[in-house]
């Protein structure tokens, strides 16, 4: 049996780095950041912190309206892309007596709230923006900026005439199953009286901002806001920059995830002094945006968008043998791994799992070496350059793509404050942020600290859903998700959810949501068509799906996450066998969609009970 060293040499004779050294470095960096309090280190945006989530800087305050009294077929909660696509797909099936309830002032969800300067989608627009063929819209660039995405959201809303189906500026406070009437009671903070046969929760993964539980956080007397509630009245300017009111301000940014990567270049340009408090650097790859070529766009054949989305998903899952249509930073790593597997010579014999993992790891090391080299090539202050290098595998955290972020640290007024050793900012006082024992006087703190994406269900949604026998959804999911196909649960008749629960995950979320919306609207239509009142997942079908998820999760993805630097992907380093049922359907989005299609074609609503 060849030793690992021999095996490595045989497989990669030209390797110019020592993988074991990198593995050790990655482990050290992970351990340096691991905190005993895990997810509890974050503060929910409620109570004294509620304003960080509940205040809407994009509408006039003081809006009031009379309570409504409505009898509906369907209530959709949330008007982001998932709610919007759900409304669209319901309409397509002729289901029209519904309302989409949304706390924001318009459609858009994450694109309504996230208006920070530079906000952009890092998934190719041709895949990300839904219904491009139907609406005839051509995205301006390969990667759209937030305003264009927001405009498209509104376009889709208009196209499906969803405006008068929306109840904006309305927060759901409770959803409760009324067994005697086989209907849901939906309560809102505007005291509406709403009864609905079906409820579809489409609240999105990034709907609740979260804050770091830094000691003293509530004592700060200057200006502070979360990036998802950007206050342009304070900074001046708009999404494209012009933050001129910051010219005499000392600004602190806490966090260096995807949001900070996009907004820091603008803050660096306009703030008098900018302090970027970094616990873990992001991997920052080339953006390489470019305008859409109208001739190419015109030449696309009908059905091209689904085809492109499936091609993207298949490439990411290493299942694409042919052309990589998107060909960008997302597909790059998958292509490299795949290429490495394909270029094996036949006399190397049958490939085993160990070799697949090793080849993936080496491709990842090479990719991350390039990312680190890019830092050295861009950042002139060597101390900052060292700190900006990420030491973990690329998909441990959301990879980012930006051509201005690293360059920003060459500015005299921009200071990188590394807080990895103290596992975060130490303390906040009335006027300062304290890190590494030093006080930084600031006028403004901007929290780029992300969202309740993978935390417990009760943290992610600020209302409870009470099913049969007043069972809370939070209790039902206390030990992990329990669903059929990630879309509905036993004990919750006529209730569905669109999102990332126990279904396949794709970073191209709009495609994922749309496929789910189509499936759920099919089911609702079937209930109506068959003259039934309600439908519910059976206990057995739910358990079988939980086991299916666990079976496919295996140990590979969890082992991968456990080796990772902490973050929301691995629930701050607490991913464990116990959370296996919370992993997505591992065979991938295309396999998942095939499975749902087959389920629909069978036509017997398998695993769901009609009454
Ligand atoms: P993230 O959760 O990715 O990042 C939060 C940041 O806050 C991390 O850098 C984290 O450090 C830091 N942080 C948390 N607590 C502290 C502390 N006590 N002291 C110092 N730093 C702290 O949030 P984002 O808003 O950046 O991104 C969230 C998600 O939104 C993305 O992952 C992505 O899914 C989505 N997004 C998508 C975009 C797109 O292009 N499609 C653009 C922007 C966001 P650490 O890493 O050490 O925990």
Verbal overview:
It is a single chain. The strands form six sheets. Strands 2, 3, 4, 5, 6, 7, 19 and 20 form an eight-stranded mixed β-sheet that branches. The protein has a five-stranded parallel β-sheet with strand order 9-18-10-11-14, covered by helices on one side. The protein has a three-stranded antiparallel β-sheet with strand order 15-16-17, with no helix packed on it. It is α/β, with parallel strands linked by helices and 611 residues long. It has 22 helices and 22 strands. The mean pLDDT is 94. The protein binds NADPH dihydro-nicotinamide-adenine-dinucleotide phosphate. The site of NADPH dihydro-nicotinamide-adenine-dinucleotide phosphate has 28 residues, from helix 10.
């Amino acid at each position: 049996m060849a030793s690992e060293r021999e095996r490595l040499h045989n497989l990669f004779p030209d390797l110019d780095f020592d993988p074991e050294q990198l593995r050790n470095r990655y482990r050290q960096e992970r351990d340096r950041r691991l905190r005993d309090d895990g997810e509890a280190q974050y503060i929910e945006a409620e109570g004294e912190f509620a304003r960080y989530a509940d205040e809407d800087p994009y509408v006039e305050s003081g809006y009031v309206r009379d309570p409504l009294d409505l009898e509906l077929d369907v209530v959709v909660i949330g008007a982001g892309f998932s709610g919007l696509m759900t409304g669209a797909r319901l309409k397509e099936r002729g289901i029209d007596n519904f309302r989409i309830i949304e706390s924001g002032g318009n459609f858009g969800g994450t694109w309504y709230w996230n208006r920070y300067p530079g906000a952009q989608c890092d998934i190719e627009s041709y895949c990300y923006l839904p219904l491009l063929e139907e609406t005839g819209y051509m995205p301006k660039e390969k990667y759209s900026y937030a305003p264009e995405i927001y405009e498209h959201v509104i376009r889709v809303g208009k196209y499906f005439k969803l405006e008068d189906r929306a109840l904006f500026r309305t927060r759901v406070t409770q959803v409760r199953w009324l067994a005697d009437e086989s209907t849901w009671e939906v309560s809102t903070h505007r005291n509406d009286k709403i009864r609905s046969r079906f409820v579809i929760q489409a609240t999105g993964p990034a709907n609740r901002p979260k804050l770091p539980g830094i000691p003293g956080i509530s004592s700060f007397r200057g200006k502070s806001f979360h990036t998802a509630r950007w206050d342009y009245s304070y900074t001046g300017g708009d999404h494209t920059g012009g933050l001129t009111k910051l010219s005499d301000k000392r600004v602190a940014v806490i966090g260096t995830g995807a949001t900070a990567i996009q907004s820091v270049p603008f803050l660096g340009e306009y703030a008098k002094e900018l302090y970027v408090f970094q616990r873990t650097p992001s991997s920052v790859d080339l953006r390489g945006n470019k305008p859409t070529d109208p001739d190419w766009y015109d030449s696309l054949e009908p059905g091209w968008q689904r085809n492109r989305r499936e091609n993207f998903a298949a490439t990411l899952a290493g299942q694409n043998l042919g052309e990589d249509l998107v060909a960008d930073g997302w597909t790059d790593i998958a292509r490299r791994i795949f290429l490495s597997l394909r270029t094996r010579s036949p006399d190397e014999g049958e490939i085993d799992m160990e070799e697949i993992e090793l080849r993936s790891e080496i491709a990842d090391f090479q990719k991350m070496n390039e990312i680190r080299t890019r830092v050295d090539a861009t950042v002139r202050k060597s101390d900052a350059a060292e700190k900006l290098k990420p030491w973990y595998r690329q998909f441990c955290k959301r990879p980012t793509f930006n051509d201005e972020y690293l360059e920003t640290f060459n500015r005299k007024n921009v200071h990188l404050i590394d807080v990895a050793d103290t596992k975060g900012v130490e303390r906040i006082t009335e006027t300062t942020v304290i890190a590494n024992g030093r006080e930084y006087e600031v006028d403004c703190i901007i929290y780029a600290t992300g969202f309740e994406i993978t935390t417990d269900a009760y943290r992610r949604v600020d209302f409870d859903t009470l099913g049969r026998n007043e069972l809370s959804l939070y209790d039902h999911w206390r030990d992990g998700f329990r669903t059929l196909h990630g879309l509905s649960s036993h004990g919750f008749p006529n209730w569905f959810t669109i999102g990332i629960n126990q279904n396949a995950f794709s970073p191209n979320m709009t495609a994922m949501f749309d496929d789910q919306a189509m499936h759920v609207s099919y089911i609702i239509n079937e209930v109506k068509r068959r003259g039934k009142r309600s439908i519910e997942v059976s206990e057995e079908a739910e358990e079988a799906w939980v086991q299916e998820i666990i079976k496919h999760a295996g140990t590979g993805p969890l082992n991968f996450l456990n080796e990772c630097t902490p973050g929301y992907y691995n629930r701050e380093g607490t991913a464990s066998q116990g959370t296996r049922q919370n992993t997505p359907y591992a065979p991938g989005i295309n396999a998942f969609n095939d499975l749902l299609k087959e389920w629909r074609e069978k036509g017997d609503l398998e695993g769901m009970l009609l009454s």
